[in-house]
Amino acid sequence: MSWLPDMEPDCLKQQEQVPVETVIVPNLRDIGDFSVRRVLPAPERRSVGPFVFFDHMGPTEFKPGQGLEVRPHPHIGLSTLTYLYEGSIVHRDSLGFKQVIHPGAVNWMTAGRGIVHSERSPEATGSAPRRLMGLQVWVALPKEHEQRAPSFVHYSVSSLPEVEEAGASVRIIAGDCFGAHSRLETLSPLFYADVRLQPSSRIKIDAEYTERALYVVTGSIEVDGCVFSDGQMAVLRPGAEIVVYSERGAAFAAVGGEPMDGPRHLWWNFVASDKALIEKAKLDWKQGKFGHVPGDSEFIPLPDH
């Protein structure tokens, strides 16, 4: 499925100064029995703050005995954040961590100079089908931290701050936003929040960060008279304070941060400010220098292109 052309709502075209700068509709990609909606990078926008990659996984229902099977693969120059709405995933990495992530919890893996990990569904315990839906994002590391040692942290649902307003609830995943601070330590100014709106509710989005975007996971939201449905990302204009309204209820991710300290190159699972770092990572993966994931002997070969 190709990128959908000219998805800008008519209401944005009719206004000279609007709070929404760009609308992104993801590209649907099938990965075996699993589908993802690739939001970033997009032709309209390569990144939002340090967020250089944004995938909406599922929603998918696996048949009995089937599940997510992402074999060990490498990363450099980024942090990955995995956040689920349905289902569960077992994370394993070359540092020796094994962690099951459930809805509302956070896996934060910093690749630095290099890490290997796998993502699989837990072993099936029954004959019932299993559902999976979530978001995975990549955050480019600042240049001074691209070659840092890799690391991994996990935060349970109960450890993440939540803000409650009339008809709205916000879970602060990363950064400072909505008057609260997440425990998750990041290496650049950014924020990530899981926002839920009840029917006929609204919430204000402050202009605390230069670059911001709203991705609708379920339902629909309205910004300044324009309606955005599930699977759409609305990139906000810098400095615009907005109010998000939902007539029937919605869940959306609010993300953003300050502009990166220069452009980034993305190739396969590698992110770097210098193409030479990517070429080195290619060679290291071919030669088996990244390390191995304990208990998971498979691996994804380096692509030919």
From TrEMBL:
Signal peptide: none
Annotated ranges, domain Pirin C-terminal: 192-291
Name of the protein in question: Pirin family protein
InterPro entries for the chain: Pirin, Pirin_C_dom, Pirin_N_dom, RmlC-like_jellyroll, RmlC_Cupin_sf
A Pfam family the protein falls into: Pirin_C
Family per similarity comment: Belongs to the pirin family.
Pirin N-terminal domain sequence ranges: 34-139
UniProt cross-references to PANTHER family, sorted A to Z: PIRIN, PIRIN-RELATED
Sections of the chain in a coiled coil: none
